[in-house]
Amino acid sequence: MKPTVTICYHFYPPDDVVSARLFADLAEGLVCRGWSVRMLTGNRWFHHTEGSICPSREQMEGVEVVRSWRPNWDQSRHLWRMLNGLWLMAAWWLRVLFSRRPDVLILGSDPQFTQLLIPFLRLISPRTRIVQWVFDLYPEAIMAHSPGSGMARLAERLRAPVGLCYRFADGLVDIGACMRERLSPYQRKSEPVTLTPWALVEPQHAPAPDPELRNKLYGPGVKLVLLYSGHLSRAHEYRPFLALARRLREREPGILFAFSQNGHRIEELREALEEADHNIRFTPFLPLEQLAGLLASADIHLASLRSDWWGTVVPSKFFGSMATGRPVLFCGAEKSAIRGWIDEYKVGYFLNEEQLDETADLLVDLAGRPEKLRALQQNAFEVYGRHFSRRLVLNGWDAYLRELLERS
Q1: CB neighbours (10 Å) of residue 189?
Q2: Interior angle at CA 48, CA 47 and CA 50, nearest 5
Q3: What are the angstrom distances between the C-alpha of 82 and each of 22, 304, 355, 384?
Q4: What is the pTM of this model?
Q5: Per-residue pLDDT for 408 more than 70?
């Protein structure tokens, strides 16, 4: 008989938000590896404020998908977002209560504070192995988002009950060494396990830029394109990239910085530009089916995480960059996981405000040495295949969950 697993996460395809696609890959990957998979999710879209996803129950790629209705409360406000989460968690608990208990239950970290559900799941299903994939770390992310606010003080008070809830889990899976460090004060049953996200698009070979698309997006005569593609929210930083671009705008006009993003800080970035910033461009934010061409159109990718957010999230664009064979210029905390991977595997460069001139020199050198750039790109592509690919990580999930069952 196949082992059974239930996965709980707020969003799922046809929603196109990155985390929804990653959880779909996880669910479908476990189906391919011999599991019977049930997905408990919500019926609301991540980006759209109106409408809902139907039907409430269907089979998708071998996965039984069950969508629970929730109110359409404003996800951009902390209080309403938490109420949405509590509603969904209660709905999922009832789903588990009135159905056959799974062998394994995986909880994602959206809605916020799904840890609070763990003891109640343990109460109704004591034999089920309960695992949390800590994709975003709460309450620490709220404390980083709004330091000093009333919501941050409330989040701080929730650390003790969250820590108690973790003790009822059979496993915590983090997505990087810095997150593991942030989790270390919490007591847990099992040894820490790291299973990273993966790229949504995995080319078979490191693709060369399409000359027509590159010319359309960036114009003729460009020597080096640095691209920021993805979400730009309070967790991310753009100002060091802006400062670096200004160091280069007269020195080497052929180096271009491009931004293709959505998120809360887009207008803030636009308003920060000066008339002289001719080497900074905005390109349309493209849907998933056009993402591969966009990522391949650049030479180097940009990624960032504000220093006070270290260990709470890991920017998933890092993995997409390597899968496309593009090194990463990363701005963030010294102790972040991405900084560690860049140093260990030589897949990019680290940027801070003290290194702007040094980084500018490096980019000018790369702009004039295409053979060196191609070697960096090929190394990034090969490192992704050896250490971070979807196949490797899903094999890791399969092995980890089966070990949990054998241990039990």
Answers
A1: 12
A2: 155
A3: 23, 26, 40, 36
A4: 0.93
A5: no
